[in-house]
Specification:
With about 375 residues, the protein is α/β, with parallel strands linked by helices. It has twelve helices and twelve strands. The strands form three sheets. It has a seven-stranded mixed sheet with strand order 2-1-3-4-5-11-10, sandwiched between helices. Strands 7-6-8 form a three-stranded parallel sheet, with helices on both faces. It has a two-stranded antiparallel sheet with strand order 9-12. The structure holds beta-D-galactopyranose. The site of beta-D-galactopyranose (GAL) has 12 residues, from loops.
């Protein structure tokens, strides 16, 4: 931070004026914006969040410079990346934490240097240095997963399950929210849980091992469905079922993120549903906030639509709406063009390759 930034801070001129080095701390010039993403095992970050944020930032701040890093599921690597970005003199930090709790220290570092922080997708807990939070209604994500599975189990004649639950990473605050939403649906319908696991790093291979353990413990007929918290863990669970000679089509499995492979599994009848979260909306809102903060301008008044308690303050928030996806609404969701915000999340061309062509045809996808 240049002398001008500190000067503004000392005299309480307001955070937006305190960005980065002198020559871009206010009034329309560009600025340096850091985007720090948590992991690379889940495909959304490099396939969607990074490129979509980059193009949306360019739209809202053509002169802004993007400083990007991915922590590969490693919180200490993210700590180093935060320190490196601050040393580079960034004006705004957009942070999607590997560990929602331990990220508070990273935010406090940024605050000490007058750098505003946007908590991206996952809420950073326990720091009053978080200026904005942008995400989806994550309890709703779980409710959509839970209610879809509850209805499918009832249609299959096994309304109370039991099911196997493959949850996400215990260090990710989102996993807690997804779980709350899903469990509320299972409790309401009286669905029994045969086995339940938390999956470190949301790692698909660990999810596969967990599902193998569950099948060994309860047998091929000891469960009637699988609650997988995202598509990565769903892929692991489905691979385990296939390996054990269990037809995944007979065990409805949930997911999240509308990954390419998940859409292919849905078309092929191997996965029952996923949840589409339009990252084009999430990255656009975040880019608008970052652009305003980097250029010392006011944040668009119609952007913030909520506030979220992170244990230290009520954080002004932009909360987007998730959508449940099955084979019946692919065209209206993941294949839909997003206009100014970008191309469709997935394309029929990408999904309907080779071994999926037949299933796509049967589903009317051509
Ligand atoms: C969550 C995110 C999900 C997900 C998971 C694994 O925080 O909201 O979309 O896939 O992390 O990265």
């Amino acid at each position: 931070m240049g002398v001008l930034g500190c000067f503004a801070l000392v005299f309480g001129l307001g955070l937006v004026a305190c960005g980065g080095d002198d020559d871009d701390g206010g009034g329309g010039g560009g600025g340096k914006v850091a985007l720090l993403l948590p992991e690379s095992k889940t495909t959304r970050y490099e396939a969607h969040d990074h490129p979509e944020f980059e193009s949306n930032l360019k739209r809202h701040c053509p002169d802004c410079e993007l400083v990007y890093s991915n922590a590969n599921q490693d919180a200490s690597q993210q700590q180093d990346q935060v320190e490196a970005a601050l040393t580079e003199g960034i004006d705004v930090m957009v942070l999607d934490p590997v560990d929602s709790a331990s990220a508070a220290g990273m935010v406090n570092l940024a605050k000490q240097q007058g750098v505003p922080v946007i908590s991206y997708d996952r809420l950073i807990l326990g720091s009053d240095g978080v200026d904005y939070y942008v995400s989806f209604d994550n309890v709703k994500v779980g409710e959509l997963q839970g209610s879809a599975l509850v209805k499918k189990l009832a249609d299959d004649g096994t309304p109370t399950g039991p099911i196997v639950k493959i949850n996400g990473s215990p260090t990710d605050n989102n996993a807690k929210l997804f779980g709350q939403g899903a469990q509320s649906q299972f409790d309401a319908a009286g669905v029994q849980i045969a086995k339940e696991y938390d999956t470190p790093d949301w790692s698909p291979d660990k999810a596969q091992q967990e599902m193998e353990q569950a099948i060994t413990a309860v047998g091929n007929n000891g469960f009637t469905g699988v609650y997988a918290m995202n598509d990565g863990t769903a892929g692991g669970a489905i691979a385990a079922m296939t390996g054990a000679g269990v037809d995944p089509a007979s065990k409805p499995t949930t997911g999240q993120d509308a990954e390419l492979e998940a859409i292919q599994r849905i078309v092929a009848g191997q996965q029952f549903m996923t949840v589409y979260k339009a990252t084009s909306l999430e990255t656009d809102a975040t880019a608008q906030l970052a652009a305003a903060l980097a250029q010392g301008e006011d944040v668009p008044s119609d952007l913030v639509n909520d506030e979220t308690d992170n244990g230290a303050k009520m954080v002004p928030s932009v909360i987007e709406t998730p959508v449940a996806v099955t084979i019946d609404n692919l065209q209206d969701t993941v294949f839909k063009d997003n206009g100014d915000l970008g191309p469709p999340y997935q394309t029929v061309q990408d999904v309907c390759v080779a071994q999926f062509a037949q299933a796509c045809k049967a589903a009317g996808l051509e």
